[in-house]
Write a structure and sequence with these properties.
By secondary structure, this protein is of the alpha+beta class. The protein is built from twelve helices and five strands. Helices cover 68% and strands 9% of the residues.
Length: 408
Amino acid sequence: MADRRRYFSVRGGEWAFAVVGLPLAVLGAVYALAVVYAGALLSLTVLGLPFVTAALLGARGLGALHRWLLQQLLGERVEAPDGLPRPVGLVARGRVVLTDPVAWRTLLYLVLRLPLGVLGFAAAAALPPGCGWLIGFPLWGRLLEPGPRSITWMDAASVALGLLLLSAVPGVVRALTGVDRRLARSLLGPARAQRRVRELETARATLLAENTDRLRRLERDLHDGTQARLVALAITLSLAEDALVPAEGPDLGRLRTLVDRARGQTDDTIAELRRLVRGIHPAALDNGLGEALPELTATTPLPVTVSLDLRERPDEAVERAVYFCAAELLTNVAKHSDARSAELAVSAADGRVSLTVRDDGCGGAALGAGTGLTGLAGRLAAVDGVLRIDSPPGGPTVVTAELPARLC
């Protein structure tokens, strides 16, 4: 029933985009074809390069208009590409515009948008009236031909065909707008190299911020925890030294008490240092994920089913990213999901590592809803990983991380 409701629930913006998009598609296609045709004709004259340069700048403007329309009507935010560099000299600037991949991809989008615009307009504006005419065909026949008229197979077929086509209209409109979204993301956004540079810059900024925060937290823990324990140990040893040389001889009872206290303080300090070192690099990772992940799930406050398929061992940096990703996701499950159980599955084969955490909680997890998942996505991007979240309201939540097993 939910799938059926989603099938028939076409938003008003999608209808508006299908109707308004046709004139823009026609104008855009005419512009793109005119640029190519006129540029080819003028290429033999001195006007050719200036004309194409100006036309490519105009194509960038049309791309911005289509991105705005997609966001306003379809709610699809297409990231704007980087601006053109501005070198010194008119010839250099013209060369930058002529070799701009964004402008050429925008011209391709304008050409491909025309058939989609025609089909979208036909589905949203022409097909429903046509379906109404087919459904009312028996009535039109009686209005046009007075007198008794029996119902024929054509009457029944026209009604059935009209109802069938009318029921297909929402699906067709949604499918065409889906193709428009994918086409715009592919051709109107930044080039793949630009997108990769942005992702790496964001990942670097995230890692720098996390490392700075981790160093500050480590410094605070060492100052407030480990250093205080060592100071207490030094005081205990000083008291023990005083107990060795009193005027009437050593106080063995007090000395034994102080030595026991010093031993306990030493054990606590060692445990504190191990906890801090584990936060930097878990010792269990020395033997791989096969040993580290079961130890991690054993400390989780809810039952976790572990499934491992580790046919190859990834790079150390990838292992560390998978481990901390699993730790963060299980912590989120325990804190926010109200889940009763969780499942952790990790596979490493054919050069890829996949981590999946599933819980039976309340759902509603999404990137941007909190800093944890957003930071986790940035950390994975630093090792060419991606994070996917499927968490409908009411659950279940399935979070998947995909990473390469080798970084080079």
